[in-house]
Amino acid sequence: DVVMTQFPLSLPVTLGQPASISCRSSQSLVYSDGNTYLNWFQQRPGQSPRRLIYKVSNRDSGVPDRFSGSGSGTDFTLKISRVEAEDVGVYYCVQGTHWPYTFGQGTKLEIK
Amino acid sequence: EVHLVESGGGLVQPGGSLRLSCAASGFTFSNYWMHWVRQAPGKGLLWVSRTNPDGTSTNYADSVKGRFTVSRDNAKNTVYLQMNSLRAEDTAVYYCVRDSSTVSYWGQGTLVTASS
Asked: Which residue, A32, A82, A89, B44, shows the most beta carbons closer than 10 Å to its own?
């Protein structure tokens, strides 16, 4: 199985400051169709996961533009330009290129 | 509006069985792959299973292969997860998911507890 490694696992951030989460895969996530199926999810306390970013850098509908994704191959990053209180939760990267799809361990973002 | 509503969770003894259901609405169910993802209490996420639009192709995580079976009834807009030989480590919230390139919908989840 593809191992997804996220860091940091804990991310205290001051309101209004930027935040960055890294995700590394144990093998390339480029699919045979040329797409890279690396997605980012946010899970707020007590809620179901919500997808923020799909195929590395595409924001899902309704996702604020302070969220952005980047990367290629095996190294990916989720950035929040200015953290707001509603961003508190756990963030997961997940690869959808190789079955079984696999998640990173999760990064817990909290307000400092 | 898309809705995914899971049901069928509950308390079961280790070795027992449960069948989860997910009723879908708001989209053409028979056009989409459907998935099950679980989350153990206080833990991360595991992609459990998936089925193609007509139910002829299914895949499973290694930890559930041979014990869980995913199926669907497109006439009823429902996907199922039959879980046999349940273990304590299967205890989790199980989410029904419609996940495609451009949009991802998740249900609220149903809790399965395998405990004596």
From this structure: A89
